[in-house]
Design a protein that fits this description.
This protein has 277 residues and is an all-alpha fold. It has 13 helices and two strands. It has one domain: Serine Threonine Protein Phosphatase 5, Tetratricopeptide repeat.
């Protein structure tokens, strides 16, 4: 392969990083057994370099290569300048690599405009990781209000409520997410988790079998249900997804829904799947 320009060499290196990340990809904390599409170095003749580079940053983050994406975000900014999406993706990478305060600051700066829904969603995940259950619920709920058919946002809202002991109010967003995206493994796993926490293991098994979750993913759901059930239960009134969340005291932090970073997978592979939705 002849790489004539510095930009082409940079694109090839970025693509190689995405391929490396794909070797350890997880989906929402559970193993992703679906095959990952092959990626090849793009031709810059079909589209402009700026678009190609942003696509590669997106793919890096989809594959969990967040540290590498931070480096390429800096390179993109130097070459093309900052955009709202670039700033939001920087916040996503900071959150995924544990730099929560920096991520929170960027998300808050994006709560209006084209990235508002994604920023509210990211802010909700930051607050969940920080153990701020009420703030997490408010932010995730705002994301679903801005994008009411986004299954990922609904599923994360429901999962955060499950982690906070709010089993009754988790039902509706989880059910909505499953109907909107019935082939999404994480969405199905979260709905099955809700069923287990209500004591309906028969329904949970049926949900996972109908969703064709692999056996080891089903076992991960069962283990997580045991962990969450061991927490002190809360009392909450059942209701559809409310416009104003009920006031609650903070509990143990809800785990992040993002794939583990490359570094986390290298150092905590044995327990990585048990601590996230």
């Amino acid at each position: 392969m002849n790489l004539h320009t510095p930009f082409q060499r940079l694109m090839f290196a970025a693509t190689a990083c995405v391929l490396l990340a794909a070797c350890g990809k997880t989906l929402g904390g559970y193993p992703n057994h679906a095959p990952t599409a092959s990626l090849v170095a793009p031709s810059t003749g079909a589209r402009d370099d700026k678009t190609v580079y942003m696509d590669l940053i997106r793919q890096m983050q989809q594959q969990g290569a967040y540290y590498a994406s931070l480096a390429h975000i800096d390179a993109y900014r130097q070459r093309y300048g900052a955009t709202p999406e670039l700033r939001r993706r920087q916040a996503d990478a900071l959150r995924a690599t544990g730099q929560l305060d920096a991520a929170r600051t960027i998300y808050r700066s994006l709560l209006s405009g084209e990235q508002a829904a994604a920023a509210w969603h990211g802010l909700g995940l930051v607050e969940a990781q920080s153990g701020n259950a009420v703030a997490a619920d408010e932010a995730l709920l705002k994301a679903t209000e801005l994008e009411p058919v986004n299954a990922a946002y609904l599923s994360d809202l429901g999962y955060a409520r499950l982690c906070d002991g709010q089993t009754a109010t988790a039902k509706d967003p989880l059910a909505m997410a499953a109907e909107l995206d019935p082939t999404n493994a994480k969405v199905i796993a979260n709905l099955a988790l809700w069923a287990m926490l209500t004591g309906d293991t028969t329904r949970a098994d049926a949900i996972m079998q109908r969703g064709q979750l692999p056996a080891d993913s089903q076992n991960d759901v069962r283990r997580l249900a045991v962990q969450l059930a061991s927490r002190k239960p809360r009392t909450a009134a059942a209701s559809p997804v409310p416009s104003t969340p009920a006031k609650r005291t903070n509990s143990a932090p809800a785990p992040t829904d993002v794939p583990a970073s490359m570094l986390q997978r290298f150092t905590t592979d044995a327990t990585a799947y048990e601590a996230r939705p």
